[in-house]
Design brief:
Helix content is about 75%, strand content about 0%. By secondary structure, the chain is mostly helical.
């Protein structure tokens, strides 16, 4: 794929993600339908991603306190994930996004460890 094809492909993928997200937002706003957390259904414990839909909905309504209450971990890393997604998109368009640098791998591993720790801590008895 050349640069123009990669750019068009990436634009299409991001557009599909945004359209799907907006469609899901409409569904949860106007119906009682939600995508359940399989981990929670199977174990009774909240996964590190539990509450992300409610967090996003709270953010759309400018309720930062509510968003933090639903999923503080994802809310705190979101300001870093968005620019990182843009950075990775640029690398893909340039054709240099095949490999992750050692610092990128280290940060991604730390984010994963953070998510796992958050998942354990949020399920500890109060």
């Amino acid at each position: 794929m050349d640069r123009t094809q990669r750019k068009k492909y990436l634009f299409r993928v991001w557009a599909e993600v945004l359209i799907a997200g907006f469609a899901y937002f409409l569904v949860i706003t106007f119906t009682s339908l939600r995508i359940p957390c399989i981990f929670y259904l199977l174990t009774g414990y909240q996964c590190p991603g539990c509450g992300v839909t409610r967090m996003a909905n709270a953010l759309i309504h400018m309720d930062l306190k509510g968003a933090f209450a639903y999923n503080p971990y994802v809310l705190c890393i979101l300001p870093f994930l968005i620019p990182y997604g843009i950075y990775r998109s640029r690398k893909y368009i340039d054709g240099t996004g095949d490999h992750y640098s050692p610092p990128e791998i280290a940060v991604l591993v730390l984010l994963l460890i953070g998510a796992l720790l958050f998942g354990v801590i949020r399920n500890l008895p109060s």
